[in-house]
Design brief:
The protein is α/β, with parallel strands linked by helices. Helix content is about 40%, strand content about 20%. The protein has a single domain, classed as Rossmann fold (3-Layer(aba) Sandwich), CATH 3.40.50.300. The strands form two sheets. The chain has a five-stranded parallel β-sheet, sandwiched between helices. Strand 5 and strand 6 form a beta hairpin. The chain binds guanosine-5'-monophosphate (5GP). The site of guanosine-5'-monophosphate has 13 residues, from strand 5 and strand 6.
């Protein structure tokens, strides 16, 4: 029988540099990773493309997919009627074919996925401190004061709930964070091989 792939779940507060770390890890990973594209009901931002950054669903489409059990997990991430969900079609057939799949989802979604896939490799990317995160968010210059405060309170929420992640990377320096992440993947590959 084909060996199953593994799930890698990446989370961390907004502003921590998660997507930058993710994109480099996708290139440099010691095993090829398929990035799972989530569905969301929020509108596209900037250059985001349907099917690449997200599947942009209407509320009806999203709820219909949910009724048909099309999600591994789904959440109203900011509690404001905006939904995000991990599609089964982005995960199950790929794992069955032996591929490793990376999800980038929030802490609550991660808890749901871990309940279904206990061997998922969970990685939380943390800022050196909340003060550093605040400085990074403010220096972007694109956020209103209220938006920065919202993101910080969400960051605190996520960090308080991140104790169950298997790995924690503090993103002080991008190169070091990427190296640590790739090292984690290599270790997990070796452990998997030993257990065969
Ligand atoms: P954004 O709207 O900035 O792209 O993402 C906001 C948050 O939603 C991020 O913390 C991201 O990790 C989370 N997110 C993205 N896709 C999913 C998903 O499929 N499920 C869950 N639970 N969270 C998601």
């Amino acid at each position: 029988m084909n060996k199953l792939g593994r799930l890698i779940i990446l989370s961390g507060p907004s502003g921590v540099g998660k997507s930058t770390v993710r994109d480099i890890v996708l290139e440099k990973s010691p095993v090829p990773l398929k990035l799972s594209v989530s569905a969301t009901t929020r509108p596209p931002r900037g250059k985001e493309r349907h099917g690449v950054d997200y599947y942009f669903f209407s509320d009806e489409q999203f709820q219909e997919t949910r009724r048909q059990n099309g999600f591994v997990e789904c959440k109203e991430v900011f509690g404001r009627n905006v939904w995000y969900g991990t599609l089964r079609s982005e995960v199950e057939s790929h794992l069955a074919a032996g591929q490793w799949v990376m999800l980038e989802i929030d802490v609550d979604g991660t808890a749901d996925v871990v309940a279904q896939y206990p061997d998922a490799i969970t990685v939380f990317i943390a800022p050196p401190s909340l003060e550093v995160l605040e400085n990074r968010l403010r220096s972007r210059g694109t956020e209103t004061d209220e938006a920065v405060r919202n993101r910080l309170s969400r960051a605190q929420y996520e960090m308080e709930r991140s104790g169950f992640y298997r790995y924690r990377i503090v993103n002080e320096d991008l190169d070091t964070a990427v190296k640590e992440f790739c090292h984690i993947i290599s270790q997990e590959v070796l452990t998997g091989e030993k257990n065969d």
